[in-house]
Amino acid sequence: MRIRALSALTAAIAVAMPLSANAQTVSGPKVEWNHSTWGKARAFTAGIEKVAEIVKEKSGGQFTIKIHYGEALSKDKENLDGIKLGAFESADFCNFYHPGKVPAWMVFTLPFLQLADWNVSKDVREAMMKHPAFIADLDQWNAVAYMSGLLPQYEFLGKGKAPKSIDDWKNLRVRAGGGVGDAMKRLGAVLSTVPATEVYTAIERGTVDAVSFPYTYAHAAYQIHTVATWFTSNMSPGTSECASVFNKDALAKLPAQYKKLLDEAKEPAYAHLIKAYVDIDKVNEPLFRSKLTEIVFTEADLKKFEDTVGRPVWEKWVADNKGRFDAQNVLDTLLKEIEKAQAKHLKKT
Description:
The protein is an alpha/beta fold and 349 residues long. It has helices at residues 9-13, 46-58, 79-85, 118-128, 132-139, 178-186, 199-205, 217-221, 248-253, 256-291, 299-320, 327-348; strands spanning 31-36, 63-68, 90-94, 143-148, 154-158, 173-175, 190-191, 210-214, 230-232, 242-247, 293-295.
């Protein structure tokens, strides 16, 4: 069953209560943390921004997290290195930037994982952060996972003849990475390794036919919709995992009351993050539909895609990682967590 992103949203947003001007609840020493990220403030950064706001207000300004945008502290692909060196206390990282550094985390790039529902996605990602293989990956970088960036499902925007069926992807030149790229290749698409910052030009000039990005905010952020002619809205070929992590030594030194603040900040931060994604979709989807042709695949096509293309990629991922860690267990655990979270949130709807 394909679950769309807005179900059970109200319950998640309900916990995002505004903070009062005099919201200090704890006392403690002056502690300043630096958080490294890339790009500018956007939906993806809304979660850690809310955390920074909460801990500052709850500590009366004694505990602060300063967010450094635009790779001011580190290149996006070097944030784990910076965490290991203790160059900063907190950072964002994406698994696809570090496939060799966090191999177990790459399970989230596999196609057709049922993570379109925001609350299902949150619960599953939180559970997987506690998996021994995930913890071991970050241990090598003296890092501990804090919260997920809840990347939305990917969709495609493209220019030219639109693929109206699964078979129409053959010979299309697509920009897609990880397991999604592997799945598209099995459909006969030709993969392109164009950097994200160059995708606009590639689509505009016709050197790439389609691009896969988190829907809708990333496409809009790179202005792909201004040069594309069509978009998919229900393909949901996959996602990835980008998370905020802490330096383990910095976390260990943090006073207990500040650790508690970080724990308490997660739920309202997640609610704020989900709302940011939903709000940007409310702006972007009507814009996309007014300018581009919307491609909606049939359930039969989607089932064919998942069964004949998606699952072989899962099996290949397990085989490729055999000996590095228990990849089969990681995948099995992920699928069980998805099933458990779906059952939990479907009951609420």
